[in-house]
Amino acid sequence: MSSGPAYGFYGDDFTGATDTLAHLARAGFRTMLFFQPPTDAQLDAAGPLDAIGVASAARAMAPLAMKAALLPAGARFAELGVRILHYKVCSTFDSSPELGSIGAAVSTLRGFFPNPLVPVIGGQPGLQRYCAFGNLFAAGSSTAGGEAPPVFRIDRHPTMSRHPATPMQEADLRLHLQDQGLPDMGLIDWRHYISAPGHLDAQVNGRIESSCPAVLFDVLEDAHLAPIGRLLAQRSTAVPLLAVGPSSVAQAWAMATRPADSSTYVASPVDASQGPRPVGPVFVFAGSLSPATNRQIDAAHSYSRVEIDPAQVDTGSLERYLDDIVTLLRSGKNVLTFTSRTFDQASARRDDTTRACAALVRRVVTAMRPRRICIAGGDTSSFAVQALGGWGLSYVGAISEGVAMCRLHADVEELDGMEIVLKGGQMGGGDFFERLLDEGTAV
């Protein structure tokens, strides 16, 4: 299908997938994010698209489950004529051989996108994630007085080195991914971007001729994305290409291929910018236990709060929490529901906990449709959005860097058009939840 979307992305969680959706939409590309490989009917409803995405919970899956989910998605992207498939991972690359294996994703998808180059883009400067000489760094929490936050090597990052499911214990992404089935990775360090024309191509060809299974590209600043984007665009023209990385992959590709005048972006028929804005209270569910989310909860003064112990979310307690939340929403109050700060996520049955929280979100939305909902936490977001029963998201605007406001598309009238914000645990400033109450968005 030569007239189909040129760019496809598969998000290993929902929060990151909406960030990629936002970057492509803001660059002027008609983009839609689906929850499953899209049907012909859904594509017809969306109208002409330049880019399509599929959001998943792959980062919380074992390799066999990942393969089962990725095979039909890879086949569908290839059938639609996608030239470059972006396997979208978290900008911190947190994953392991047992959970969210990036190597397992590459081995599954590469058969559909047989280009000999498999670029892995490290770093997303807009989120203060940097890759230098193959090593990944990430900023910590903001400091008082507006000073720039400290930057840590990822294996010494105060949060990511202690992640409850996939702690980052190695900063060199080549070694980190070697354990996941990508040995002998090549490296293009940042110095090659400032060399003479043709030098970068020669370096990449050398890595391919050395039979590297994948090639890691440093990214220290946004300017480094332009030469990477040109390389992606050129190499994917002849043979469909699989690329791995955070939303910086989409940024790089957009730099090389964006419409001549992206300000004249023509919305698709279901674009989120169309139609009246909903009114009513805001509902937030915070399942993340990150320090950044903790500070945002503490600063959320415009909400009635409901604290839950997810380990105790059984049939009986679910009704009690549900009644409290719905009663507050019906009285017009904004509601912030959050998991107990003392909850030991590492020792709990993780899937059971996230599914229970997702069921609670679904029942709140069914009982009392809020005008806007926000779900904080990568895995919590993935399970909760799947539980809602919609089929896609389109872009409305940005709340903060790395966090998009979207509109839910569903066949159920009560859900269709609801505004939804998915926030990773580390994303957003201290006043993030307060900013959700604004009628407009900060794009």
TrEMBL record:
Name of the protein: Uncharacterized conserved protein YgbK, DUF1537 family
Residues of the Four-carbon acid sugar kinase N-terminal domain: 8-252
Where the record annotates domain Four-carbon acid sugar kinase nucleotide binding, the positions are 284-433
Do the record's keywords include Phosphoprotein? Answer: no
Similarity remark: Belongs to the four-carbon acid sugar kinase family.
* Coiled-coil parts of chain: none
**Taxonomy of the source species:** Bacteria, Pseudomonadati, Pseudomonadota, Betaproteobacteria, Burkholderiales
Molecular-function annotations in GO: ATP binding; kinase activity
Write the record's keywords in alphabetical order, separated by commas. ATP-binding, Carbohydrate metabolism, Kinase, Nucleotide-binding, Transferase
Pfam families per record: NBD_C, SBD_N
Query: Mind telling me which InterPro entries this protein's record contains?
Result: 4-carb_acid_sugar_kinase_N (IPR010737), 4-carb_acid_sugar_kinase_N_sf (IPR037051), NBD_C (IPR031475), NBD_C_sf (IPR042213)
| Secretion signal, residue range per the UniProt entry | none
